[in-house]
Write a structure and sequence with these properties.
alpha+beta
Length: about 180
C-alpha cells in the first residue's frame, strides 16, 4: 500500500508540474505576442511621423470632370513612385442632382477613367525634379522627395455639377484634404 501511494504522488506531481509549465508557456507566448504588436505599432507610428502631405491650389472644371491640385510632401521622408498605386484619392462631388463619393485609381498613363496621375513635379516653386527624379512614363521610377510638390490630374467619367472636396491618404496613413476654389 505504501508503494501505490508513492506512485500516486509522483503522478500527481508530474501532472501539477506539467500544468504549471503549460500555464507559464502560454503566459510567455502572450507576452511575446503583445511585445511584437507594440513593436509593430511603434514602427508604423515612426514611419507615419516621417510622412506628411499638404494639398494646395485645388482647381476644378466640372464640365470636363477634371480636377488639378498641388500636393506637397511636407514630411521628412520621400514616397517611392512604386507606392503611388497605394495612395488613396477620394473625391466628393455632385452629379445628376445626387451627392457622390468615388475612390479614384492611380493610372500613370491616363488611359481609363476615372483616374489620377502625376501631371507635373515642382521643387521650391520651380517646375522640375532635381533629387531622385520622378520618371512618369514606363518604366516609372523615382521618389517624391520632401519639399517637392506634385500636380495631380484627376479625371472622372463625364461631367459633374460640382466638386465638394478631395481627400488624399498616403500608404502609411497621412491624410490631407482640399476644397476646390
Amino acid at each position: 500500500m505504501g508503494f501505490s501511494t508513492t506512485i500516486a504522488i509522483m503522478f500527481g506531481t508530474i501532472i501539477l508540474v506539467s500544468g504549471l509549465a503549460t500555464i507559464i508557456t502560454i503566459n510567455l507566448l502572450t507576452i511575446t505576442t503583445q511585445f511584437e504588436a507594440f513593436e509593430e505599432e511603434y514602427k508604423l507610428n515612426e514611419e507615419r511621423s516621417g510622412e506628411d502631405i499638404r494639398i494646395d491650389n485645388v482647381e476644378g472644371n466640372p464640365t470636363l470632370g477634371l480636377l488639378l491640385l498641388n500636393v506637397t510632401n511636407i514630411g521628412e521622408q520621400g514616397i517611392q513612385i512604386r507606392d503611388f498605386p497605394y495612395i488613396d484619392v477620394i473625391i466628393f462631388y455632385k452629379k445628376d442632382g445626387a451627392n457622390q463619393t468615388a475612390w479614384i485609381p492611380y493610372d500613370p498613363n491616363g488611359v481609363s477613367t476615372p483616374y489620377w496621375r502625376v501631371y507635373k513635379v515642382f521643387f521650391k516653386g520651380r517646375e522640375g525634379d532635381l533629387m531622385n527624379p520622378l520618371k512618369l512614363t514606363n518604366p516609372t521610377h523615382g521618389i517624391w522627395d520632401p519639399e517637392e510638390t506634385i500636380e495631380l490630374e484627376i479625371v472622372l467619367s463625364g461631367s459633374v455639377q460640382e466638386f465638394y472636396y478631395v481627400v488624399i491618404a498616403t500608404p502609411s496613413g497621412s491624410i490631407a484634404y482640399g476644397v476646390p476654389s
